[in-house]
Amino acid sequence: MNNLTLISNSPEESLCMACRLGSLIQRPCRIALSGNLGAGKTHFVQGLARGLGVPDHIYVTSPSYALIHSYEARLPLHHADLYRLSHPDEIFDIGLAELMASPAVTVVEWAERMDSTEIFDIRIHIAIQGENQRQIHAQASGLHFQDLVRSWQQVSRPA
Ligand SMILES: Nc1ncnc2c1ncn2[C@@H]1O[C@H](COP(=O)(O)OP(=O)(O)OP(=O)(O)O)[C@@H](O)[C@H]1O
Ligand SMILES: [Mg+2]
């Protein structure tokens, strides 16, 4: 199993789901986030940050203008938003390629702006299904991250 689909019925539920994934991450990891404007990518990173141990008083905001925000946590967290990327090669200019090779958790919104998303360990697509409903689809590469996604599914099942 390297695919997982979760349904979230509220922003809070999405935060919890992402927080649980963040709590499970123990190794450097590259996560691609895709989905339309307003799907909940930034929201997801906010939950993930909590699970990784970014303190509550640090507000995780969209790096749309800065392109990359970094936070201290159990593993450094780098949050990139490539919506404004004009050319795939710009990931080198903004230092993202280097960050993705570093021992950190790197999460990239609008990852589809890159040449290829093959490099990512986990690819998450969020689809809008209704005003408050989102479908979160995750696909992992490699045994370690497939196990991680399986554990995420287990802790995400309703009691
Ligand atoms: N189940 C849900 N999960 C996540 N967000 C939801 C949900 N239901 C409603 N929302 C709303 O959807 C919006 C998601 O906004 P967010 O900024 O996270 O989207 P985004 O995918 O990062 O958009 P952009 O492409 O502009 O960066 C928020 O206003 C949030 O309250
Ligand atoms: Mg966003």
From TrEMBL:
Subcellular location: Cytoplasm
Pfam families: TsaE (PF02367)
This protein's UniProt keywords: ATP-binding, Cytoplasm, Magnesium, Metal-binding, Nucleotide-binding, tRNA processing
Keyword Electron transport listed: no
Residues making up the signal peptide according to the UniProt record: none
InterPro entries listed in its UniProt record: P-loop_NTPase, T6A_TsaE
PANTHER family: TRNA THREONYLCARBAMOYLADENOSINE BIOSYNTHESIS PROTEIN TSAE
Entry similarity comment: Belongs to the TsaE family.
Protein name in UniProt: tRNA threonylcarbamoyladenosine biosynthesis protein TsaE
Species this chain originates from: Desulfobotulus pelophilus
